[in-house]
Amino acid sequence: MSAAGSTRVPGVNEISTRDRERLIEAALAARENAYSSRGHPPFRVGAALLAADGRVVAGASVDCVSSGERRVRGVLRAVCAERTAMVAAVSEGMRAFRAVAIASDVPQPVSPCGLCRQVLDEFCTRELAVLLVPGDYRARVGAGDAGGGVRVLALGALLPMVDGPFSRMTQG
Ligand SMILES: [Zn+2]
């Protein structure tokens, strides 16, 4: 069995236990800042990126109603937490990343939507470690589950056969 918290998955960037904990805590903290337009049930998500230089950049989901739709259907236009974090990181000049953690309120780990997978692929290799954090992670750890139910997989597993900047370089 691997050490508690380390990520040893074939084809996935390995990150230290300390970085893993930093990343998960940053995603859980960002979740607290998630926004959902008034009158819409919130689905709070936080995400945190581990840049290649060790910096951690977090983002929260921001669900707004566009003005044209407010009177008709009230459809929410989501900026997912993963994209919030990536846009913030890129705006700070970061261009390379080793891992991302994603946490919501539900006990099942939630995975990035298609658009977020594509945006991650724009800046990350297929070995990016994607940590899917259950909403009750802290309770699980407190109950003795050292891994906290976190699922770890590679971006390449989430986005097979993608036509992105890195896959163009690495696929035949
Ligand atoms: Zn998304």
UniProtKB/TrEMBL annotation:
<dbReference type="GO" id="GO:0072527">
    <property type="term" value="P:pyrimidine-containing compound metabolic process"/>
</dbReference>
<dbReference type="InterPro" id="IPR016192">
    <property type="entry name" value="APOBEC/CMP_deaminase_Zn-bd"/>
</dbReference>
<dbReference type="GO" id="GO:0005829">
    <property type="term" value="C:cytosol"/>
</dbReference>
<dbReference type="GO" id="GO:0042802">
    <property type="term" value="F:identical protein binding"/>
</dbReference>
<protein>
    <submittedName>
        <fullName>Cytidine deaminase-like protein</fullName>
    </submittedName>
</protein>
<keyword id="KW-0862">Zinc</keyword>
<dbReference type="Pfam" id="PF00383">
    <property type="entry name" value="dCMP_cyt_deam_1"/>
</dbReference>
<keyword id="KW-0479">Metal-binding</keyword>
<dbReference type="GO" id="GO:0008270">
    <property type="term" value="F:zinc ion binding"/>
</dbReference>
<dbReference type="GO" id="GO:0004126">
    <property type="term" value="F:cytidine deaminase activity"/>
</dbReference>
<dbReference type="GO" id="GO:0055086">
    <property type="term" value="P:nucleobase-containing small molecule metabolic process"/>
</dbReference>
<comment type="similarity">
    <text>Belongs to the cytidine and deoxycytidylate deaminase family.</text>
</comment>
<dbReference type="InterPro" id="IPR002125">
    <property type="entry name" value="CMP_dCMP_dom"/>
</dbReference>
<dbReference type="InterPro" id="IPR016193">
    <property type="entry name" value="Cytidine_deaminase-like"/>
</dbReference>
<keyword id="KW-0378">Hydrolase</keyword>
<feature type="domain" description="CMP/dCMP-type deaminase">
    <location>
        <begin position="18"/>
        <end position="161"/>
    </location>
</feature>
<dbReference type="InterPro" id="IPR050202">
    <property type="entry name" value="Cyt/Deoxycyt_deaminase"/>
</dbReference>
